[in-house]
Amino acid sequence: MMEGDHQFADRQTGNGILNKANKGTISEEQAALVHATVWDVIPYMYFTDGHCPVPYSKRFSSLGDLVKAQPSKDKRIWLVSSEIVETYEKAQEIFNEYLSLGYEGIILKDGSGIWEDKRAKHQIKFKGELECDLKIVAVEEGTGKYAGMLGAIVCESADGVVKVNVGSGFNDAHRKNLKEKDLLGKIVAVKYNARIKNKLGDESLFLPIFIEVRDDKDVADTSKEIK
Hints:
Blueprint: E1 2-3, E2 7-8, H1 11-23, H2 28-31, E3 36-38, H3 44-49, E4 51-52, H4 56-68, E5 77-79, H5 88-100, E6 105-109, E7 115-116, E8 123-127, E9 130-141, E10 150-156, E11 163-166, H6 172-177, H7 180-183, E12 187-192, E13 194-197, E14 203-206, E15 209-213
């Protein structure tokens, strides 16, 4: 998602515009801001099967050819930055460089890896902070200046093992406009620093921060998927 002089919009702004596209309410001006950065291509017949035997290196090469075939004047699709590394230490060095530039992180991928419609074991995500998708099971009203507005959301993993109250990450518009009826049962992305346990063994997240409502998902992560 781009805005202004080819500057990336923040995640919430970009996803907000894309959600309007899904709902059919996007304006021409907003549609003109949308650019796609792509990192993989799956033939449709393999996608419907949930399994593609073609190695990632070949898929990425094919994707590069597709991106290059665009007319340069109206280019709207871009190939993700990629670098081949021989060691984990080199991947860590690149990750630190991206963090210093303000990016979230990188994904280390095995070039021989196949594609499957599930979490891949041959990919490693490098992130300065962790992130997971949780289900909203309750909504708490705010206090003080936020009385009568959204205060926090109570979230849990798909299996109910990890439970956490998330009260940070909301701006004033969120607190005024997000209602319980709009949130209950929704999946939300939550950023956090660590998975923790209290003295009773109950599991939660340290320093949880609301990122966004995941309108593209209807199933939360399980406790096994949350680091």
